[in-house]
Amino acid sequence: MSTTLILILVVAGAYLAAHVAFGWLARRFDVISGAEYVLLGVLLGPEVSGLISSSVVGSFAPILTLALGWIGAVVGAQFYLPVLSRIPIIDFRVAFLEATLALGLVSAAMTGVFMWLFGLTLAQAVFPSIAMGAVATVSAPSGIALTLRRLGRRAPVARQLEVATAIDALVAIVAFGLLLAIGHAEPEAAVRAPTPTEWAVIGISIGLVGGALFHLFLGGEQEVDRLFIGLAGAIILASGAAAYLRLSPLFPAMLIGFILMNTSANRDAVKEVLGKVERPLYFVLLIFAGAAWEWGGWLWAVPVVIFLIARMLAKVVGGGVAAVLTQSTSRLGLGWGRALFGQGALAIAIGLNYQIVGDLPFSGIVFTAAVVSVLLTDFGSARWVNSVLGPWLRRRPRIGRPEPAPLPTEEEA
Amino acid sequence: MRRLLILALLYGGMSLILPLGVSGQGGQALLTFGFLILAAYTVGELAAAVRLPKIIGYLVAGVVFGPYVLGAVTYEASVRLDAVSQLAIGLIAFLAGAELQWSEVKERGAILLKVMSTELLFGFVVLAVFIYALHGLIPPLRGAGTATVVAFALLFASVAIVHSPAVTMAILNETGARGPVARTALGVVLLADVAVVLLFSAVLAVAQMLAPATDAAAAGSIGAVIWEIIGAILIGGALGVGVAAYLRFVGRELMLFAVLITFFGIEIARLAHVELLLMLLVAGFVTESLSEHGQELRRAMERSAAPVFVVFFALSGAKINLPGVAPLLPLVLPIALVRAAAIWAGTRVGSRWAGAYGPERRYVWMGLVSQAGVAIGLATILADAYGEMGEYMRALLLGLIAVNETVGPVLFRRALDESGEIALGRAQSTGSGPGAAPGRAAPPAVGSAPDPGAASGAAS
To answer: Do the Cβ atoms of B270 and A244 come within 8 Å?
Structure first.
């Protein structure tokens, strides 16, 4: 079957599944949409049915790269400064502490595992460990949103969770982007190899230039078609440039999303275009990520299981320590990090990015850990959020103490 | 100034990035795609600023940034983006079919057939004779037998008369023109695309009798050609019914659906060995005829197509081998002039025969000069079938296509401008001109000069 026909059938099938089956599953069992597409991809991939072969997955690399970039732009577009400035600074402190601790704890744990299991030196083990740390840091906002909609009320911890998921994504993408810059191989052409700092600057520059090009391209016009071309051109250019340079497309694209959101006069149109195109790319990414997965033997199970356990512990410990250090335990409790167990598409994106760059150490294990973590945590994500939010919402508010306000919207900002 | 800054940033960035990366992977194709979207669109706006068609800008961007001049777009990257070119052709064909209305086909079908058949006949005969007369100047034909020379002349002429639906649609989309010149040119170009496939196959069969091909399999058979046409109509009709059903019962995610259905059509045409352009033309026509929501799908397709069209024409420009074409210009330019003259004469005679005495008699020929992808495809078939002679023919044809691809859009735009159809189209689309009303443009009365006040409808 030809590559094009496969792509068409996959996307059409994914949409059909989304509208017919998975939507019902999500409503009936509180399952967050995402994991089932990965599972569908695994079923279609070489490990099960073989309908999508490894070579076909490889030929879709440009589309997958674009999907990575687009997801990065969507993440960056969350950070609209006028809205963020109205959030109490304490929420950001807690979130950054939690994210950094989760990244550090999982990276350290996996470093030990790689050194023990595969006899690696510290320098060799650190690289894939930090990649897994970045994957572990990501948490899914969809479980929180689903639970809040169901409960119909807000708790103090709800806003913290929303901030935490955004900051988790930011820290994960920055850490992963820097990792690929630091561990960059020498270029093929006969040029002086850039230093790690220079690679990091190149990655940042791609994002900044992409954002600048969008505004130059748009000029003063706000016509939607022109905005679409400018946006698509900037993200495609940045994603392609990053992939060509063996950097992560997520990082520069996140910068583009941030710049567009904070400097564009037509933010609503930008958000609408980003959201509309994200959906099909999201499906393609998840399905082909599942199809790209290949099992490397039972030896892989050890680091993957340890990763799962380490991540859950890191989220709880990281959240608790962050609450203690910022004196927020009365507001959040010690176990609020449980609500961050769910992972979502960004974790898959980071794992897949690590795999498709090529020739990176233990890419199969990193990717497998991401896939397994998403598959396991997404199914229970809403329940974990409920277990954290529920007790707060069952408390009766004290007289005179108002309910905490939701995050301000852009219009209010 | 702003546009020059964009181009400087883009080219500067590419120059810095290209030596540092890894070629042969999808990243370079994506990078080139993004670069071409922004660079070609910007050059297109520069072209529009000097009153040239935007697609001239896209072509120039491809030539300038392509592998033969500045090298920002490498040959390998341009080949990897062939899927984009296929998508563009598919979208163009579907949109062109959706432009046609059954009432118009019934009313103007006879006119279009007469004009098309006459100008093709004129072009074919004149070019074949001209090439035969020039055969002493063509290296592979010096000292060749009469049969070989005649075969070469016939084959060359059968490809040289091809027009370009892609360029025609691009100009009409850019200008918003919907008057008799625009619609006659579009109709003739679309019909001619089908007729040329038949003519080419017949000529190829005759040429093989005169001078057998070195690769007979590449030359194909008459039966295959007949299936190409009939199969395209049947499958295109079925596809159109399917699309209309989707619009009726689902009607969601139209942008994604537009891209998917086009890719699906391309793949079906390849697997079934049918003519792609005709198949999607029929699909677009059937969809528009059966569905009330055809306009929404067209709008979604036009939005999806915007970056794709830009890159398609830029890639066409990037593939023009300037160093290869330059030595052939002394031969190519006279052929191009003779071709244009034959089209002019054939259109005049055909219009007279059809009783069309309006502006189409004077201006339509200018919309038939352009050439692009279809001609390139046929030239490649000749190169595969006839070895060294075929390769020379292809080189000559590519030179001719390069000239017509550049000059043709300028001529067509001028024709639409002088006939007043651009101004009328803009007035109708803003709702400010005389007779402006929502809905499609109604075709003018047969044989009458156009009355701007009588033509109604807004550009889509």
So the answer is: no
Q: Residues of B435-455 as b/e, b for ≥16 C-beta within 10 angstroms? A: ebeeebbbbbeeeeebeeeeb
Q: What does the pLDDT look like over B262-274, one tens digit per residue? A: 888 888 888 888 8
pLDDT value at A303 more than 70 = yes
pTM: 0.83
Give the span between the Cα atoms of B183 and B441, in whole angstroms. 10
Does the model's ipTM exceed the 0.95 cut? no
CB A136 within 8 A of CB A370: no
User: What are residue B409's phi and psi, to 5 degrees?
Assistant: -60, -35
Mean of all residue pLDDT scores within chain A: 83
* Range B214-218, long-range pairs (CB < 8 A, 24+ positions): B214/B385, B214/B386, B214/B387, B214/B390, B215/B384, B215/B385, B215/B386, B215/B387, B216/B385, B218/B381, B218/B384, B218/B385
Torsion angle in degrees (nearest 10) through CA of B45, B51, B56, B60:
-70
> How many Å apart are CA B322 and CA B334, to the nearest integer?
18
Distances from the Cα of A168 to the Cα of A159, A340, B42, B78, angstroms: 14, 9, 38, 39
In whole angstroms, what is the distance from residue B117 CA to residue B76 CA?
40
For A273, the token pair is 């275009």
Interface check for A180 against chain B (CB to CB < 8 A): the answer is: no
Q: Considering only CB atoms, which chain A residues are within 8 Å of B39?
A: none
**CA distances (Å), A213 to each of A78, A219, A350, in order?**
20, 10, 26
CB B188 within 8 A of CB B370: no
CA nearest to B271 within chain A = A2
Q: Using CA atoms, how far apart are residues B5 and B39, in angstroms rounded to an integer? A: 11
Q: How large is the C-alpha radius of gyration of chain B?
A: 22
Residue A388 has pLDDT above 80, yes or no: no
Please name which of B257, B206, B200 lies closest in space to residue B224, comparing C-alpha atoms. B200
CA-CA distances (angstroms) from residue A193 to A187, A188, A243, A244, A357?
6, 9, 17, 15, 18
User: What tens digit of pLDDT does each residue of B209-249 get?
Assistant: 777 766 555 555 667 777 888 898 899 999 999 999 888 88
Nearest to residue A243, comparing CAs of A75, A351, A346, A356?
Answer: A356
* Structure-block tokens of residue B445: 């009365």
Distance from the A138 Cα atom to the nearest Cα atom in chain B, whole angstroms: 25
Are B335 and B131 within 8 A, CB to CB? Answer: yes
Amino acid identity, position A374: V
Strand, helix or coil at A27? helix
As a whole number of Å, the CA-based R_g of chain A is: 21
Q: Output the six-digit token pair for B396.
A: 């000559």
Tell how far CA B5 is from the center of its chain.
Answer: 32
Contact residues on chain B for A281, CB-CB shorter than 8 A: none
Over the stretch B276-330, which tens digit does the pLDDT of each residue have?
888 998 898 899 888 888 788 888 887 777 788 889 889 888 888 888 888 888 9
Give the pair of three-digit tokens for residue B82: 């062939």
Q: How many angstroms separate the CA of residue A179 from the nearest CA in chain B?
A: 17
CA-CA distance, A105 to A314, in Å (whole number)? 6
